[in-house]
Design goal:
Helices cover 29% and strands 26% of the residues. With 317 residues, the chain is α/β, with parallel strands linked by helices. It folds into 2 domains: 222 residues, Nucleoside Triphosphate Pyrophosphohydrolase (Alpha-Beta Complex); 81 residues. The longest helix is centred in the middle third of the chain and has 20 residues. The two termini are 36 Å apart.
Length: 317
Amino acid sequence: MSNKKILILYKDKSDDILNSPFFAYPKENMDLNDFIERKSFSFIDRTLAEQDSSKKQIIPYIIIQDKNGRFFTYKRKGNEKRLHGFFSIGAGGHIDLEDLKIKKDKEFLKFENMNISNLDEKRFKLSINDFYEIIKITLIREIYEETGIIIDKNGFEERCEFLGIINEDISDVGKVHLGFVYLYKLFDDKKLSPVEEEIEFFEFNDIEKLYNIWESLERWSILALSLLNINKTLIYISNKNLTTEKKIKFFDIFGFSEFIEYIYNKNDEDNFKVFLSFIHSTEKGKMIYYFLENEGEYINYKTLLDENGFIQIKDKI
């Protein structure tokens, strides 16, 4: 692991967003300007950042989609052993201070209120425009490393869309990283030739193929796909609410990114049928599973779920 100085964000204990065990916040549900301008940032040694979960390493994470709507998917090898063997639909990388200085010297970046010549170890604030300039250079670098495509910065905004923020504090690697997810669309049939050595192989996959490899997707890819409303959905049926502890297990073990709860009671079969009809009308095309607490007492619920084609999760959680 290199010991370059990378951009980190300081966590605030009062911030409900960053204290959630895992989340995917779409842009429509958050005020990114307010989020960025309330935070403090620093460039610190990566080795220090990896050991400190009170700070989040900022990772621009880009999903690449071809003109047919398929997603660039690759399998990892390389330096980050914690992610070996997983498929990924996102190209992500750290924001490196030296990289920014080089691009600034070439007049690639245009900062409003930021002097990058003396930021080592200092705590500072960022405007939303300066934050986007920083993000942009890392995204362009990642697209090149993962696909071999050289991006013209002047046309970048036309093809790149911010989707939202993802986070998981379950794994060791997740605890110290925060993802800012973007979608980049290819409009032509350029041949891809990845420069990054950590890519074992790559292909473009449609949604159906992604569902087939879902269990092997890295958790950040699952969260990023949920920003595009592509989910593995769990219907949780119980007489109690789904606890955070159980939700974490369902996400971590099975990769569920969407949860629908139904609180059952006896003599409630008609309402349950209406509920299932609603699920069918609103969740078309998704992978839908169910988990039924106290199955023996509610065998009629299981029959209805099976008849509707939902798949049962039988493992005890």
